[in-house]
Amino acid sequence: MKKNERTQRILARGEVSGHCHVVVGDVDIEQDADGRIILKVGNEGAVLKHLLETPWVEEEKEVWTGEHKDITLSPGVYDYVPQINYDPITDRIVKAID
């Protein structure tokens, strides 16, 4: 897999630790006209992994961060929805910090 293909498989990045959430396996990732990310997982399935970004992107090495267990994705179509939180102090919806 080429470097740009590995980069495209990153769904989210950590804010501080250099980790990322990567989907690997039999999956096509598309973005629709509204900006939604759609995962189309094929018959062989896929896995969402929590990896260090630099080894993944630069060398295709899966270096697990020790956080978050892998999430197995069965064949099907998934709509990726980033996690958000409600902040009652500011009365705002904010992006979740990982």
Structure notes:
- The protein is mainly beta.
- It has one domain (3-95).
- The protein starts with a helix and ends with a strand.
- A hairpin with a 5-residue loop joins β2 (19-31) and β3 (37-52).
- 13% of the residues lie in helices and 50% in strands.
- The strands form 2 sheets. Strands 1, 2, 3, 4 and 5 form a 5-stranded antiparallel sheet that branches. A two-stranded antiparallel ribbon has the order 6-7.
Beta strand %: over 45%
Cα radius of gyration in angstroms: 15 Å
Average pLDDT works out at 87
Distance between the termini: 27 Å
Main beta sheet: strand number and arrangement?
A: 5 strands, antiparallel
Order of helices and strands: HEEEHEEEE
What best-fitting shape do the alpha-carbon axes yield? globular
How many strands in all?
7
| Helix percent band | 10-25%
Indicate how many domains the architecture comprises: 1
Quick description:
Helix content is about 15%, strand content about 50%.
Strand and helix layout:
Blueprint: H1 3-8, E1 10-13, E2 19-31, E3 37-52, H2 53-59, E4 71-73, E5 76-80, E6 84-87, E7 92-95
Antiparallel strand pairs: 1-2, 2-3, 3-4, 3-5, 6-7
Task: Give structural attributes.
five-stranded antiparallel beta sheet; 7 strands; 50% strand; mainly beta; globular; 98 residues
